[in-house]
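Self-study notes.
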Amino acid sequence: GPGDVFLDIGGHIGLFAVVGARLVGGSGQVFSFEPTPFTRSILTQTVALNGCKDIVEVRPEAVSSMRGEAEFFDTGDEASNANSLAPIKAAVGSITVPTISIDEFVEERQILPNCIKIDVEGAELEVLRGAKEVIKKFRPSIRLGLHPQQMVANGDGLKDVWDILRDFGLTPHSDGSPMYLDDFCSKSDLFDVNLEYD
């Protein structure tokens, strides 16, 4: 809503950043993270064309569990929505990108995030690991995209995500209803969940 802070993790070409900017208005802030240089250039143009430059800050980091650098895998497709810190099968190359955690970014900028969207093509677990303090302290609304096949390539699984969500006091909801462990872990294709606090 107006005045809120929205973290757009996996900004792609800016569709969520623009919608977020419309919702938070001039008194709010949107931070959109997109590590792929070409895609980030489109994101920046999208923000400018929609008159959101004063609200949306485009960031070059890949959000992970800690600050540093990491190998970021690229499919080679222009404006691909599948590039990732996870070693995806479709990758034709990789680049080195800066990384930062949500906890570090929030502390550094002294902001209070109200809403977080996470769509990181298989690197979900690392993003969550780096958001522990923010989740427990500020209890933001969270929308999480899960990519089971890409997660396996990264050495992770849905049970790992389930465990960290429950440790944080979060329950995934799909279509307005809570999910249970067996249902959650049985998914094999991309699915989205809202995370609700216990």
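Second protein, same conventions, sequence then structure:
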Amino acid sequence: MRARIALEDGNIPLARRLLMRQLLITAAALALLLGGIGAAATRFAVNSELEHFAERFLLLSTLRKEALESYFDTVRAEITFWSLNTDILSKQADMSRYWKAYQDAADKADARLDYDFATSALQAELDFLAKLFVVERGYYDFFLIGKDGNVLYTVEKEADLETNLISGPWRETGLAQVFERVVQAAEGRAVVFSDFAPYAPSAGEPAMFVATAMLNADGELLGVLALQLPTERIKS
């Protein structure tokens, strides 16, 4: 009898160890199960949120694209209107003629005085028309460029004024890019846009240009009209 009791007493710790092991295995399995369910729920929530943001981003991207396309259509219409304006065309022809006389003169000092005197009234009239347009319509700048690449007039009077877009310091800029493309396609009266890139004369800020040809009554190229678009309108 005592031997039987001793045997049973000796088996009690073993039984407890087996029971504890079973409980631990069960608890671990339950934890893994709950963890899996939690992870799956988390992944589902995250995926749902990502899908929601993706849909919103796609919608915003679509709306922004439509808004930009509408804005660019307006820009095309406005620059075409100004390129056909007889007053602007006349001033462009006069500016080009006076600039050529200045460039061809042997005495640059006297020629510069003559040029400034001859163009002072034209510059004032252009300032009135172009500056009013730029301010009212929200553009950054308005350019009249001779067919040989000389920048004859700008509203902002930055470092690009009176430089040459073919041989001058800004020959690799967006403004030079649209000038060249317009000259190459002048007969088709194309309206062309540049890339959106930093422009040194405007403090290195990103800029985008649009340009079109200015033709005389015989269809001959007088020069190029260009507009510098407002940075915030493109980036927003």
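Instructor comment on the second fold: The first strand starts at residue 141 and ends at 146.
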